[in-house]
Amino acid sequence: MLTKLSIDITQAEDVIAAATRRATEMGVPQNIAIVDDAGHLVAFRRMDGAKFFSIDIAITKAFAAAGARKATKDIGPATQPGAPAFGAQALLNGRFTTLPGGIPLVVNGAVIGAVGVSSGSVGEDQTVAEAAADYFLQTYAH
Amino acid sequence: MLTKLSIDITQAEDVIAAATRRATEMGVPQNIAIVDDAGHLVAFRRMDGAKFFSIDIAITKAFAAAGARKATKDIGPATQPGAPAFGAQALLNGRFTTLPGGIPLVVNGAVIGAVGVSSGSVGEDQTVAEAAADYFLQTYAH
Amino acid sequence: MLTKLSIDITQAEDVIAAATRRATEMGVPQNIAIVDDAGHLVAFRRMDGAKFFSIDIAITKAFAAAGARKATKDIGPATQPGAPAFGAQALLNGRFTTLPGGIPLVVNGAVIGAVGVSSGSVGEDQTVAEAAADYFLQTYAH
Amino acid sequence: MLTKLSIDITQAEDVIAAATRRATEMGVPQNIAIVDDAGHLVAFRRMDGAKFFSIDIAITKAFAAAGARKATKDIGPATQPGAPAFGAQALLNGRFTTLPGGIPLVVNGAVIGAVGVSSGSVGEDQTVAEAAADYFLQTYAH
C-alpha cells in the first residue's frame, strides 16, 4: 500500500493568499490555482480583473507542474525544435503545458501539489508563482 | 453598449464560506464553485475529503445555473423521458447538467453568477447550494 | 457531378430578421443561427439579453435540422425510452439534438439550410423558428 | 459587484458591415465573427464564397483576442521556437490561436469584445480585422 502526502485546503488557500499579495504589489490581477499531488484542483481564485482566458491556463500550469514534478518553465527547453520532446505540448489534450507560471510544491522531496498562475506576461506569472512556492517552502516545508 | 453586473472575488469567497459552514454542519465535505455572469470560474474550494470526481461537476453545475438562469434541478423535469428537452444533457460537451446543486445568484433580476456544489448525494449538494444562495441573497441582494 | 443549392448570406440574414421580429413581439431575446445545406454556419445573431448558454445550442439545432432534414422536434419521438433511436443524443459529440427550435429550410424538396433558435422555453424557441421558416417559405420557396 | 461593459448586437453588426465593405473592396469573401467581453459569440457573417474551414477559425480568433486582450498577431512572437510561450497554441483545446485576424474592441481601456476574420491569407484577414477595429474606434470609442 502507498501512503501519499497531499496539500490540504488550508495550505492551498494560504498559498493563494501569498500569491495574491505578490500580484497586488505588482498591480497585475491573476488567476491562481492549486492542485493536489494527483493533479486535481483544490482551490482557485480569480482576482478581480484577471483574464477569463487564463482561468484554464492557470489550472493547466498547476496540473503540468504537479504531473511533471518540475516547474513548467523547466519543461520547455526539451520541447524546442530539434530537442527530443519537440511537439509534446500536443499531449494530454493540451494539458502538457510548458508556459512559465507552474511550480510544484514539495515536502521532503515529495510533490504534494502545485501552484499555477496566469493572466499577466509569462514573466509576471512566473514571479507570482515563485512567491507562492517560496511562501509554501518557508511555511510548510521546513 | 451593454452594462453587465458580475460577482466579484470578495463576494464569491464569502459565498463559498457560507456553503462551507453548511457542509461542515452536515459533516459532508464538498466541492464548491462560483462562476460569474458569463459562466467563467471565479473561485473554487475543495473541502478536505471531497471527491475529486466531483470537482468538474461542481464547476459544471455553476456554469449551467448561470447559463440557464435557473437552478439546475429546475432544468431537469423538461429533460425527462417524454418531455420536449429529453436528451439535452448531451449538449455543450456535457456542460448542460440538470444535476441538483447549481443555483444562480441574482441581483434585481440579473444573474450575476452562480454557485455549484458537488460531492455528496444530490440532496446534500442541493442543501448546501441553497444555503449559499440564501446567504448571497441576504447579504448582497437586498 | 452534383449540383447543390445552398442558402446565401442575404437570405440567411433576411430569415434572421424575420425571426428577430417574432422574438421581439414575444418579448423574448433569442440566439438565432442559420446553417447551410452542409450544416456549416452562415449567419448568427444574439439579440441583446439572450443567454450565452444557448449560443451553441441554437447553432446545434440548426445543424441537426439541416443534417436530419427534419425539424429537431420531430426527431425526438424516436429517441424516447423503448424507441429504436433511444440514446441518439449522445451521437456526434452532442450535435444530434432533438430539442425543439431547429427547422430545415427547403426549396423544391431540397434542404438548402436550416434555422436554429435558442434562449427561451422550448415552446418559445419553436415558435420563433417556425416564424423564420414560414418567412423563408413565403419569400424564397414559391 | 463588478460592472462590465460589453458590445451590443447593433454595434456588432455595424462592425461586421464595416469588415464586409473592406473585404468586398479587396474581392476576398470572409468569415467575420464578433464576440463579447467574455468571449461569447454575438454575431457572425459568412460572406458568400468564404471557406467553411475558416468559420470556427474566425470565431476562435475573436475569442483569443478578447481573452488575451491583444491582437492575435501580437500573441504570436512569444510562442515562436525559443520563446517562453512556445507551444501555447495547444492550450484551451485549440482556442489559443495566434493567427493574425483577431483584434480586441476597446473602450476607455476596457475590452468590450473582439472581431475575428478568416478565409483569406493571414495578411488579408488582418487587413479586414483592422478595418473593422478602426471603424469601431472611430464610431463608438471616442
UniProtKB/TrEMBL annotation, chains A, B, C, D:
Pfam families, per the entry: HbpS-like
Entries under PANTHER family matching the protein: PROTEIN GLCG, SLR1406 PROTEIN
SUPFAM superfamilies in the cross-refs: GlcG-like
Protein name, as recorded: Uncharacterized conserved protein GlcG, DUF336 family
Cross-referenced InterPro entries: GlcG_carb_metab_protein (IPR052517), PduO/GlcC-like (IPR005624), PduO/GlcC-like_sf (IPR038084)
